[in-house]
Fold this sequence. Notes:
Blueprint: E1 2-8, E2 21-24, E3 30-41, E4 45-56, E5 61-67, E6 71-75, H1 79-87, E7 91-97, E8 127-135, E9 138-145, H2 148-157, H3 165-175, E10 179-185, E11 196-197, E12 201-206, E13 211-212, E14 224-232, E15 236-238, E16 248-255, H4 265-271, E17 276-285, E18 295-299, E19 306-307, E20 309-315, E21 317-318, E22 321-322, H5 323-351
Parallel strand pairs: 7-20
Antiparallel strand pairs: 1-3, 1-14, 2-5, 3-4, 4-11, 4-12, 5-10, 6-12, 8-9, 9-10, 13-18, 14-17, 15-18, 16-17, 16-19, 21-22
Amino acid sequence: MLVSLQLGSLISPAYACGCGAMVPSKDSRVAVDRETSVVDWDGRTEQIVMRLTVRGNAPEAAWVMPVPHRASVELGDPGLFSDLSVLTAPEHVTRHYFWPRSHDWPFSGSRNVGDGAAAPSAGAPSVEVVGRERLGPFDVARLAATDPEALQQWLKDNGFDLPDRLATALKPYVDQKWEYVAIRLAPRDSGTPLTGTLDPLRLRFASDRLVYPMRLSKLASTPQQLGLYVLAAHRMEPRGSIGGDAPEVTYAGRIDPRSAVGETRALRELTGEKPVFLTAIEQSFPHPERIDGDHQLRAAAADTPYRTKVYENQLLTVGGIPVWVLSLLAAVLVAAATVLLLVRRGRRRRAVPPPVPVG
């Protein structure tokens, strides 16, 4: 099972996110401050629960998500993100040092701390609307397309201006016969700009491989930051960097959602209460135009545990007194005691009378 967390930089206008394309309405701007995605995969079915935090002056916007097979869409559980935040929190460790530093007395200073779905039948339209639902603030259209230009035109016909490059970026998905989830983000109050954290959406579709769509992020105009949280039978790793910096593991360990600390109802619902191995991976894309594919993950060579540690350095003290002060005082006392002992021995030798000669 894959859980992914992506932080998107401010984009103006923002027509690309980590796993899809964000498209504002004409003469509007929208920025994705944060995109959080939770993806569960059991070898046959993949579920993606995602939550966007946006801001801008757009009264509505569209978001496009490629999926390898036909998807169902419903509202997600916000509690899932809280569960994951608790489980993957870094371990805080205190490290003590002996000698005073610049921020300690007596010094001064401040502390620095795959396989695609079946093709549409002959004679089918270039873009087929296979379903449409209204879910909270979302108008969701599930689409099948055999032509990226036709898909782009469909979105334009529904009130959105798209970058010309989007059709080119969608072509690999069309060639693999993927489908798409087009989501119109519209506030409940008409005319109100999109802002803040939106309700999470949950997508479910068949997939025989663990994949997280990233190809459309190459349209982003600013660096992208991606976090992947993988829940599976073993420790997982990306097959490649797909044009970004080398992925970095920040957490790896086996967890049991039934005995995890805190309330984990949403996580237990996602995993089916099965013990799993959790791997957290961070990756930066300083040049998103270099992204050349989607993330595929595989089991690592070994289930080596790891947890990020956040260190806090503190001066070593006893009873609130720095140990170095106590050590210096002890050294002074020992030196004084040694001198006193030597003085007493010298006095005793002088006080003893010389022996009287015999005869």
